[in-house]
Design a protein that fits this description.
By secondary structure, the chain is mostly helical. It contains eleven helices and no strands. It has a single domain, classed as MetI-like fold (Orthogonal Bundle).
Length: 301
């Protein structure tokens, strides 16, 4: 007979072995390490933006307006990526825009994850009326396009970082909830859950200690890929003028400001677009690798 202490010791040992195996595969995967390195650089730039930007991103100098990048004819080495229509340093503004995009991306995932996981666990384990109500609410949410829901909510709350995070989180939690619910429906019938229920373990303890850990891999995978979606949505809202305050630097806002100059000063729209593309690509590549490693259905050993 396996004692609880032996079971817990074996489980802890297996968890450490999985973490070591995951770390080894991460270090030996060019795709994962490359994308993670790019993400770390972007995160560091966003965190230490006031210290690393070469110029004040909001300082205007009309005498230096529309300077091309330094490698083009007429460029100034002091302004490596050129200046915009108001003479502001393009490199400094791209660095400044990283803070808003990453803040919205990560904060939205955390908030929507908390809501979605909590409702998914409740729906899948409780069943009955609670399951039917949460499922219907999830279906209603999924039927509404996220961008339209976000536009409607921000129009009511007003443009700000907090409004964007809340609007995107409200539209994003159903994806987490549906996946968690599907897994909990299968887990609640497993022998270890039945055993815990028979010996009188409280319901909340069963959910937190025995059910939730088995859904964590799927939660991490969808959370990682959702960051890229949230960055694109935030940029789209800022491009439409419905995102954060106009005084805040955003990649979407930079794209919007450069629309009138796209034919003659293409770098003004190309550079922030590349910043969005590089960030989203890095997140998606790392998310794909994480899915391959954490999803047992597609692991090849």
């Amino acid at each position: 007979m396996v004692t609880p202490t032996l079971f817990l010791t074996t489980t802890a040992r297996e968890s450490r072995a999985r973490r070591r195996r995951l770390s080894y595969r991460l270090l030996h995967s060019a795709k994962a390490m490359g994308s993670l390195l790019v993400l770390c650089v972007i995160i560091l730039v966003a965190v230490f933006e006031p210290l690393v930007t070469p110029h004040d991103p909001n300082k205007q100098n009309l005498l230096l307006r529309l300077l091309p990048p330094a490698w083009e004819s007429g460029g100034n080495p002091t302004y490596i990526l050129g200046t915009d229509q108001l003479g502001r340093d393009e490199l400094s503004r791209i660095m400044g825009g990283a803070r808003v995009s990453l803040s919205v991306g990560f904060a939205t995932v955390v908030l929507s994850g908390l809501i979605g996981v909590a409702l998914g666990l409740t729906s899948g384990y409780a069943r009955g009326i609670a399951d039917r109500l949460i499922t219907r609410l999830t279906d209603i949410q999924l039927a509404m396009p996220r961008i339209l829901l976000a536009i409607s909510m921000i129009a009511v709350m007003g443009p700000s970082v907090q409004s964007v995070i809340i609007a995107l989180a409200v539209g994003g939690w159903p994806y987490q909830s549906r996946i968690v619910r599907a897994q909990v429906l299968a887990l609640r019938e497993k022998e270890f859950v039945e055993a815990a229920r028979c010996i009188g373990v409280p319901t909340h303890r069963i959910i937190l200690r025995h059910v939730f850990p088995h859904t964590l891999a799927s939660v991490i995978i969808i959370a990682t890929t959702s960051i890229a979606t949230n960055i694109i949505l935030e940029s789209s809202l800022s491009f439409l003028g419905l995102g954060v305050e106009a005084s805040r630097i955003t990649w979407g806002g930079m794209l919007s400001d450069s629309r009138s100059y796209i034919r003659v000063n293409s770098w003004l729209s190309t550079l922030p677009g590349l910043a969005i593309m590089l960030t989203v690509l890095a997140v998606n590549l790392f998310g794909d690798w994480l899915r391959d490693e954490l999803d047992p259905r597609i692991q090849t050993g």
